[in-house]
Design goal:
alpha+beta, 4-stranded mixed sheet, 3-stranded antiparallel sheet, 7 helices, about 35% helix, globular
């Protein structure tokens, strides 16, 4: 089972319902959350909602310009098949030389801004912002503006940071690392 980066849920188009119901059954019987994840690929976020990871191992940005997500980003692991409404999301790519905001997701789902500094990884920033977009479609916490009080502890921000931090783990490293360990 190759589990990678972006977290999806039961509103995704390609849910494996057999493992989903197996995970819920194991949970009802008191199984350890890590055992559930290891056996099914499903885990509960801090909000109690069930999640699985999409394979991001082939993710890449195509250039450093602006355009639709479908034109600028190749996922290779089912993101756009599971969340097709994201295809038309506009990506506004503008490298920055000052300031501290490196990305943002518009709550209406219309746009993601990427503003990486030269030393920052735009794919990690996009992964973080795409997690917010998935969370919006799932009905999970979508995060908040970095200038707002409570930003660091917001569930949506913690989940998006976890998704971005897992982007470059190998499949073997992922299998050994329970996702909630990255919820920081």
């Amino acid at each position: 089972m190759d589990l990678l980066a972006l977290f999806a849920g039961d509103k995704a188009n390609q849910v494996d319902y057999q493992t989903y119901f197996q995970a819920k059954d194991m949970h009802q019987k008191g199984a350890d959350p890590e055992k559930i994840w290891n056996e099914t690929g499903w885990f509960q976020g801090l909000d109690g909602k069930w999640r699985f990871e999409l394979d991001d191992s082939k993710s890449q940005l195509r250039g450093q310009a602006s355009g639709s997500l479908a034109d600028m980003y190749s996922h290779g692991g089912g993101l756009l098949e599971n969340y097709p409404r994201l295809m038309d999301t506009k990506i506004n790519y503008q490298p920055r030389t000052s300031g501290n905001v490196n990305g943002s997701f518009y709550q209406d789902g219309s746009q993601i801004d990427l503003r990486p500094k030269q030393e920052e990884d735009p794919l990690q920033i996009l992964t973080h912002e795409l997690q917010h977009a998935i969370n919006k479609q799932q009905g999970w916490s979508t995060g908040m503006n970095a200038s707002q009080p409570g930003y660091k502890d917001n569930e949506g921000e913690r989940e998006a940071r976890a998704a971005a931090s897992r982007l470059y783990l190998t499949p073997d490293e992922r299998k050994k690392r329970f996702p909630l360990k990255d919820w920081k």
